[in-house]
Amino acid sequence: MVKVLFVCLGNICRSPMAESIFKQLVQERQLSSQISTDSAGIQGWHVGKSPDRRTLEVLSEHNIETSHVGQKLSVADLTTYNHIAVMDEANFEAVYNFYYENLNATPPARKLFLIRDFDPEVEGVQEVQDPYYEDKKVFRKVFDTLRRSCNALIDYIVEEHNLTPEEPAEDEYSD
Hints:
Layout: E1 2-8, H1 14-28, E2 35-41, H2 53-61, H3 75-80, E3 83-86, H4 89-103, E4 112-114, H5 136-160
Parallel strand pairs: 1-2, 1-3, 3-4
Helix pairs in contact: 1-5, 2-5
């Protein structure tokens, strides 16, 4: 099982949105038995809370549901997950330092990266904008950015880990 963790600052906007988008795309590609995902925050401000209402509204606009509750990045996450995708440079630096301080090692580039490293439309800044203090229009922009990036990340994971889609279950009533 390939495990992917999305990380942002508080785990109520960007990372749970990325987790939910990624999970839907994995299901659509029939890879659910081979790829799992979750999300966490650098800070513990929102542990146990649902995602921001605007995150939930934008996900709902795309028929994506989530049952995620906020959680803080843990030392166990550093070894549990094959890939840790962060939203911005500050998150990257925090996770990098957390990794180094707790595992006395530098995280491999294939393990820790900015999610927009996979965005085919990236220009300039490779960060996902933090929409927390913005209106829903920015949340929609974040959704589009994350969808593109997650699609390309799945392509990478499929190739890197040599995955193939599951065969659809046969309908017992079909001819």
